[in-house]
Amino acid sequence: MRLSVSQSVHEQEPPMTTRRLPLTGVRVLELGNYIAAPTAGRMLADFGAEVIKVERPGTGDELRNWRLKAGTTSMLYRTINRNKKSVTLDLRSEAGRDAVLELVRRSDIVLENFRPGTLEKWGIGPEVLDEVNPEIILVRISAFGQTGPLSARPGFAAVAEGYSGFRELVGDPDRPPVRVGISIGDSIAGMQAAFGAVMMLFDRQRQRIHGAAEAVTGKDIGSDEPLADRTVDVALNEAMFSVMESLVPDYSAFGEVRTRTGGRMEGIAPSNGYLCAGGKSVVIAGNGDGIFTRLMTAIGRPNLGEDPDLQTNAGRWERRDELDEAIGAWCAVRDVDDVVAVLEDAGVPAGPIYTAEDLVTDEQLRARNMIQELDVSTGEEILADVAFPGITPVIGGASIPIDHLGPDLGEHTAEVLAWLGLSDPEDDEVGDDGTASADEEPTGE
């Protein structure tokens, strides 16, 4: 269904939650682009923080044009930047700098994912931020971190995935490494940044409570802690390195070099995706000792389930090709629903490999409000009842309702600047086109 572009999305507001959100009262200033820092900002905004997103005048966050199917603003932008406010400021101008510092003065957290040194070049580096607000928490996301020999390099998550060891394990062993279908490096870095921000908020609050209890010193608890101890330094390559499980210990202890295994997981069998009749696929995880026996009985191969050499995972891994062939042959003549039903009755973990079409109708997701339908503007027209992913993690039994989707470019500029007691910089001076140079590129996908 399409509505007239003259109809406001806000005329059909989604239901507001009456739940007290955990981060209500926290203010976050988001200086960033693409996916990494905006993901952190989205997570904080989802749970009640007021996130003020600063975008370049004219162009805004480049994510507005990524995977753009119609209009001027993509569904990707609307998703990643939900529940935020958008303010347009030229960070290289004096007026833009003054506005940012005034926002810093009134904020708890600053998020940024520019190339290291960019904020300093603009005159809003850590020392300046600390002087303006001695309690500010600074969260910085970059390709390789703020220190070390590679820190000055720009880089996107695709490159960081290579440096982390992650990309080497994705794909089939007889082909070059491939990437997964999402910006996983940016997303994981964003999650770690959000966790780091909340961790620092918790520490600050704990210090205030202890200070209030002692009460005799009269100290400003936050001001005597150096900014370095209030800075969260997230590197894309390290974020991905942190999820590589025992890759390095296995190499260090045993000299093992893991290789790509396609749909399998190294050392675990049988566990893979299998094509079913009708063209859909299923994931079957039959790698537990007892589960394996039940799986082989269910597919009519009890001889394999009773084979002495297959009673342990190590033995099954040695014969993984044989096992996958047997399971694949059984799946190939059954549709995916039949396969899942049979294995569910047998107590074998299995499930369909969903497409977007499957996700929007999934009963489990809808029961937990994980599919939320909202009206959304493309910038040229309004689309009604578009499905968006809900808020995670769940508190209270179901996903919190999304308050609003990613805002229009500069939608809240006048409101926020009026609150700061400032005039709109664009009314006072003519800036440049607002684009970033190579040295100013944000860290992102």
TrEMBL record:
Does the entry feature the keyword Transferase, yes or no? yes
Please name the GO terms that the record assigns under molecular function: transferase activity
Is-annotated flag, keyword Ribosomal protein? no
Where are the compositionally biased (Acidic residues) regions? 424-445
Q: InterPro entries, from UniProt?
A: CoA-transferase_III_domain (IPR050483), CoA-Trfase_fam_III (IPR003673), CoA-Trfase_III_dom3_sf (IPR044855), CoA-Trfase_III_dom_1_sf (IPR023606)
Instruction: Please give the Pfam families that the UniProt record associates with this protein.
Output: CoA_transf_3
For this UniProt record, the keywords arranged alphabetically read as follows: Transferase
Looking at the record, which segments are called Disordered?
A: 422-445
Specify the protein name: CoA transferase
Say which species the protein is native to.
Brevibacterium metallidurans
